[in-house]
Write a structure and sequence with these properties.
This protein has a domain at 28-157 and 199-248: Undecaprenyl pyrophosphate synthetase. By secondary structure, the chain is α/β, with parallel strands linked by helices. The chain has helices at residues 39-45, 50-71, 90-114, 129-141, 158-174, 185-191, 237-248, and strands at residues 6-7, 17-18, 31-35, 75-82, 117-121, 149-156, 202-205, 224-227. The strands form 2 sheets. It has a 6-stranded parallel beta sheet, sandwiched between helices. Helices cover 40% and strands 15% of the residues. The protein contains 7 helices and 8 strands, in the order βββααβαβαβααββα. The structure holds 3-methylbut-3-enyl trihydrogen diphosphate (2 copies) and magnesium ion (MG). One 3-methylbut-3-enyl trihydrogen diphosphate (IPE) binds at residues 36-41, 81, 85, 96, 207. Homodimer. Keywords: Magnesium, Metal-binding, Transferase. It holds the Pfam family Prenyltransf. Its EC number is 2.5.1.-. It comes from Ureibacillus chungkukjangi.
Length: 260
């Protein structure tokens, strides 16, 4: 529980209340990735249709994006739809595919005011045209913004991403643009969809599931993990601060002896 909430904001208007005594502003994670899980269970508990949970989850995305921006976090990657989520009933998939348009249209004035840049990772070509257009338009409108990068993982699968990177590298080796000796970790990084982003410092998964579900397998090699039973629509500032506070107490050693 956060005991003492203080009004503390770098931007004045959208004031952020954080517990100054618990959050160390010096080592806020640069990149936070979230597996937003539990929308369906949230709705079920209320005898509502699953899509009501997704709608509520979208409100949480809005709230958490504001907080991340206020805190000066550089990248917030949100797992919104996996390559495996196509297995769900068509009506649910259709609703999930309509969310970017709904979310981005209504949130756009605030995204611009805050200077938030929208990005995405995932197979964009596999998305319905209207979803693709909504994402493309948001990325285009916000491309010169220099604040928080709000990165949606949409039709994203880490294994598919790695397969594509391997194939692209093999083509370059075959046509002589790359030699085998040049293939190293840095080069593989450059062929992934996250080539322009730092690796996540903190991974959060909600809803009590303790797995990665094909999310950023390469990029999470040295990320700190934090799991909570809270369902994504119930995730709030307090839970977010709890995760960041836990992160700040970790000792990141990267295989060495730092801090021992
Ligand atoms: C997360 O909530 C959203 C997506 C995966 C798109 P779920 O829809 O997985 O919710 P649960 O896990 O069924 O409760
Ligand atoms: C992971 O959640 C994908 C997203 C949050 C978008 P799932 O609910 O699809 O994962 P599993 O099926 O429980 O592993
Ligand atoms: Mg789930």
């Amino acid at each position: 529980m956060l005991k003492k909430l203080l009004s503390k904001s770098k931007k004045g208007k959208h004031s952020l209340e954080v517990n100054e005594t618990l959050i160390n502003n010096e080592c806020v994670p640069s990149h936070i990735a979230i597996i937003m899980d539990g929308n369906g269970r949230w709705a079920k508990k209320r005898a509502m249709p699953r899509i009501a949970g997704h709608h509520e989850g979208m409100q949480t995305v809005r709230k958490i994006s504001r907080i991340a921006d206020d805190m000066g976090i550089k990248v917030l990657t949100l797992y919104a739809f996996s390559t495996e989520n196509w297995k769900r009933p068509k009506s649910e998939v259709d609703y999930l595919m309509s969310l970017p348009q709904m979310f981005l249209n209504s949130f756009m004035p605030e995204l611009m005011e805050r200077g938030i840049r929208v990005e995405m990772i995932g197979d964009k070509e596999g998305l319905p045209t209207s979803t693709k257009v909504a994402l493309n338009e948001a990325m285009e409108k916000t491309k010169n913004n220099t604040g928080l990068i709000l990165n949606f993982a949409m039709n994203y699968g880490s294994r598919a991403e790695i397969v594509k990177a391997m194939k692209d590298i093999m083509v370059e080796v075959n046509n002589g643009k790359l030699t085998l000796d040049e293939v190293d970790e840095t080069l593989i990084d450059q062929y992934l969809l996250t080539s322009n982003l730092p690796e996540p410092d903190l991974l959060i998964r909600t809803s009590g599931e303790v797995r990665l579900s094909n999310f950023m397998l390469w990029q999470l090699a040295y990320t700190e993990f934090w799991f909570t039973d809270i369902l994504w629509p119930d995730f709030n500032q307090e839970t977010f601060m709890e995760a960041i506070q836990a992160y700040q107490q970790r000792n990141r050693r990267y295989g060495g002896l730092k801090g021992e």
